[in-house]
Write the structure tokens for this entry.
Amino acid sequence: MKSKFTIAVLWLPIMATSAGAQMMASHAPSLPAASPTATAAPSSSLQVTGKAVARVNGVVLTDRDLLREMFALFPYAKLHNGFPKAQEAAIRQGAMQMIIFEELVYQEAVRRKMTIAPERVALNEKKFRQQFDSQQEFDDYLKTDMDGSEARLRQQIKRSLLIEALLKSDVQEKSTVSTSEARLYYDRNPRIFEHGEDFSFQSISILPPANASPETLQEARTRAEKILQEAKATKNYEQFGLLAEKVSEDDFRVDMGDHRVVMREKLPSEVVKVMLAMKPGEVSNLVQLGNAYTMIRLNGHGLPRKDKFADVKADLMTRLQKQKYENLRVALDQQLRQKAKIEQL
């Protein structure tokens, strides 16, 4: 088989809304990914028997539907012999909320008398069949997952496309964000885009024991002064970083001595004073902090600033659109649940 059995339609982000399982997943909204009986780990507490796990307005959802969604939420289960025990209950609850939501959306699409053109169903059925390596493999899937019925497969494809169509009209198309909306958010939330003074730097530190004798402290300083000569001879980030990995005794040695970006208020005043007198690329003299001897390579110094709207516009619009999409999807979920009779078995 070439890949997971997924219908070739738009992938839809759906969030489980239960308090015990706040999860996000993107997956084709209806068709089983594969025969759960073939992929379920022996150790999993969920074995497919076809039993009912929920009813939505009288429509039965089975453990096959549930396990298919659990795999969509946690696809690594097939590679790791099942779901992590500590997460399995949350994954199961998240999957339960998803299959209920899908069924509610499908029933609403039917109530509205939404339709899918037969040729579109046929095209997606053709694409679905092409995922199998042989006719026999497809026949085995049809027998295991669709009770041997091609008509049932076509109905599942139609169901998936109806779910997609309703979410597109009620959620996706209404979640677009204009430039003016993004600009309004930017203007009303200035602190989000403001940044305080910060420094990016690397360090090499020699750390004698807290109760070190005067002799030990002098040995540490002598060693630090010798290393300082090597540090000042480095010409770039990489050379200083390799030296840090080789001789430094602080925790940053494993990452080339790099502290990344640190806000000014989080740094010792002695360190700030030293770096304010430096230019990017320079290596400081020894800075003594308690018993420790540290040398610093300044990589950057950022002054207080605010991001320009033009620089954040694209990311901001994407983030706002995702937020609006999820708000609309949750509202739709709540609206459909208010009118529905839902039983978890």
Notes: The CA atoms of residues 231 and 240 lie 6 Å apart. The mean pLDDT is 86.
